[in-house]
Amino acid sequence: MPRRSPRALRAAAPDRQSDSETSTLLIGACPGPPVCAAVHTYLFVDGLDVVARSDSRMAGLGPRQLLRPGGPLYPTDMPRRADVATEKPPGSGPDRLTIRIRLRGETVIWSDLMYAGRDDTAVDEVRFRLDQYLGEIERAYAALRAHS
Fold first, then answer.
1. Which of 49, 70, 78, 100 allows an S-S link to 112, with CB 3.0 to 4.6 Å?
2. Terminus-to-terminus CA distance in the chain, angstroms?
3. pLDDT tens digits for range 8-30
4. Which one, of 77, 84, 125, lies nearest residue 103 by Cα?
5. Which of residues 145 and 43 earns the better pLDDT score?
6. Stretch 127-146: mean pLDDT
């Protein structure tokens, strides 16, 4: 598998000031060969690649699966679990990366996370402003459709 450049693993975003602040979501997509083995989605939270930091054996699911209207990343009033990545290639251990997504007022909450934050402390939950979160999903989906 080709090595990813450090730029592909990190997106520019402001540092978080405290745990009570909201995070920023940025979504990217790899087009597949020849850049990498398959089409997949990058999910950056506060500039950090959540999938790679959660489990380096994983790759984000395809953008058409994750970003479609009403798809797994869209929050609902009822909490739900969403697969966001799968192991590449399948081997021993868990073969899916799953997060819990819920909507509380104007805040989208991702929980059941476990990745190293900017200061290498464990991140188990992040919160997004609903408008930024939905806007980013819609932007990424529109960019995907424009390149289809």
1. 100
2. 25
3. 333 444 444 344 589 999 999 98
4. 77
5. 43
6. 94
The model's pLDDT over 67-119, given as tens digits with 9 standing for 90+, comes to 999 999 999 989 999 999 998 766 555 689 999 999 999 999 999 999 999 99
Residues 6+ apart with CB under 8 A from 81: 98, 99, 100, 101, 112
d(CA 59, CA 61): 6
Rounded CA-CA distance 9/1 in Å is 15
CA distance 101 to 134: 13
DSSP annotation string for 41-102 = EEEEETTEEHHHHH-TTEEEPPHHHHHSTTSTTS--SS-EEEEEEEESS--SS--EEEEEEE
pTM metric for this prediction: 0.81
List all residues 6 or more positions away from 3 whose beta carbon is below 8 Å from its beta carbon: none
- DSSP-derived secondary structure letter, 10: B
